[in-house]
Backbone:
């Protein structure tokens, strides 16, 4: 699972930072990204490779969503790593090791269940007011989503609509920063496990 997570992260990152095609119509160009979500201290707006130097707002929003999604996945990955490393298991999986060693010990049926779960999660975590993966608008009407990654779909709220615009931006910035930290965290855990010194970071069962 760790290898798959690493490969998915690297593949997604490559896609996220690949050069985008030049927009042909209504794409907003020459946008100022220095005040966008994610341009935070201490680096502010940091684009050393000039990936969004053309000011393409649509491309910037797409890359921001890719980063947000990777961060959400990484937060789940860090949590899963720590939980299994601590010895927590589902009934019947008590003998499955944690980390990379789990890959060689998972029964085929468990792989099938995991793939089915990933598929359902990917399908559910979408803007249901649009076609699959945002390809087009469907018959449900205008989407209530406030930003890419807003998957409440008019169903769940947790008090979000009661927040002020500034509070919403603060919450989104917190999620983005936690996702960034989690991406570095899961990468660090996998690297140290392969180096054989992850126990120096995480003593057995904490």
Residues:
């Amino acid at each position: 699972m760790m290898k798959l997570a690493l490969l998915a992260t690297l593949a997604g990152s490559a896609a996220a930072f690949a050069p985008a095609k030049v927009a042909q119509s209504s794409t907003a160009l020459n946008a100022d990204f220095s005040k966008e979500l994610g341009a935070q201290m201490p680096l502010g707006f940091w684009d050393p490779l000039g990936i969004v130097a053309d000011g393409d707002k649509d491309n910037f929003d797409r890359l921001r969503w890719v980063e947000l999604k990777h961060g959400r996945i990484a937060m789940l990955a860090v949590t899963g790593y720590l939980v299994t490393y601590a010895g927590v298991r589902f009934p019947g999986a008590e003998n499955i090791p944690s980390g990379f060693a789990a890959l060689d010990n998972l029964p085929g049926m468990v792989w099938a269940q995991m793939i089915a779960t990933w598929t359902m999660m990917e399908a559910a975590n979408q803007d249901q007011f649009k076609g699959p993966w945002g390809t087009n608008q469907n018959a449900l009407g205008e989407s209530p989503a406030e930003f890419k990654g807003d998957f409440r779909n008019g169903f769940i709220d947790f008090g979000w609509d009661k927040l002020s615009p500034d509070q919403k931006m603060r919450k989104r910035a917190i999620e983005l920063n936690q996702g960034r930290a989690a991406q570095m965290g899961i990468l660090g855990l996998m690297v140290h496990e392969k180096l054989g010194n992850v126990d120096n970071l995480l003593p057995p069962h904490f």
Notes: Residues 50 and 165 are 30 Å apart (CA to CA). Helices lie at 2-16, 57-85, 108-124, 165-195, 198-201.
